[in-house]
Specification:
Strand content of chain A: over 45%
Oligomer: heterodimer
Shape of chain A: globular
Distance between the termini of chain B: 36 Å
Structural class of chain B: mainly beta
Structural class of chain A: mainly beta
Shape of chain B: globular
Strand content of chain B: over 45%
Number of strands of chain B: 10
Number of helices of chain B: 0
Distance between the termini of chain A: 39 Å
Order of helices and strands of chain B: EEEEEEEEEE
Chain lengths: 120, 108
């Protein structure tokens, strides 16, 4: 059974890079033709898709984040990562790693979510 | 960008039917997915591609999509259905996922 687990620093200083990793268990990222992505949820903006990476390595980003986000995958560790540069207090929220089958498909699996706070 | 409109909240009595609407310009021409989120939990897929129930979701949950409104219907509502329900589409013009603000369903 596929499971996703987020990990990474819960506290980030303003202007630094917010980095999170998602560990995938139950399936192999390299052989499963899936998309692996990040969604965040805040009281003010609700659910926001940040971007996704296809199993082949191709990435897709929301225009709002495109200038400061990188999503990368490490199939040898069966994990993928989010890097959000120049973090501000507005980036303080819950981040979910997710999986979807197609680029426009439903989000079939979600991690439990992790709260990240950007503060000095 | 594409905008999805949902009522912030609704109340329904146990045993009654909840109809949760998701409005969007000609939303019937795209596909809609629905998620349930209970407090402190991640969202859970309930309906995909307008009307397909996700694995493990009771038959009481159904979906439809036509014109400018997609609807998630919960029949014979139970206390355990209390949650926030989000609709989602793929904005094919802007090329990203869009979510509604969510409708909080309270079971009286």
């Amino acid at each position: 059974q596929l499971q996703l687990q987020e990990s990474g620093p819960r506290l980030v200083k303003p202007s630094e890079t917010l980095s999170l990793t998602c560990t995938v268990s139950g399936v192999s990222m390299s052989t499963t033709k899936s998309y692996w992505g990040w969604i965040r949820q805040s009281p003010g903006k609700g659910l926001e898709w940040i971007g996704s990476i296809y199993y082949s390595g191709t990435t897709y980003y929301h225009p709002s984040f495109k200038s400061r986000v990188t999503i990368s995958g490490d199939t040898s560790k069966n994990e993928f990562s989010l890097s959000l540069r120049s973090a501000t207090a507005a980036d303080s929220t819950v981040y979910y790693c997710v999986r979807h089958w197609g680029r426009a498909a439903e989000i079939s699996h979600w991690g439990q979510g992790t709260l990240v706070t950007v503060s000095s | 960008s594409y905008v999805l409109t949902q009522a912030p909240s609704m109340s329904v009595a146990p045993g009654e039917t909840a109809r949760i609407a998701c409005g969007g310009n000609n939303i019937g021409s795209t596909t809609v997915h629905w998620y349930q989120q209970r407090p402190g939990q991640a969202p859970l897929l309930v309906i995909s591609y307008d009307r397909d129930r996700a694995s493990g979701i009771p038959e009481r949950f159904s979906g439809s999509n036509s014109g400018n409104t997609a609807t998630l219907t919960i029949t014979n509502v139970e206390a355990g259905d209390e949650a926030i329900y989000y609709c989602q589409v793929w904005d094919s013009i802007s090329d990203y996922y869009v979510f509604g603000i969510g409708t909080e369903v309270t079971v009286l």
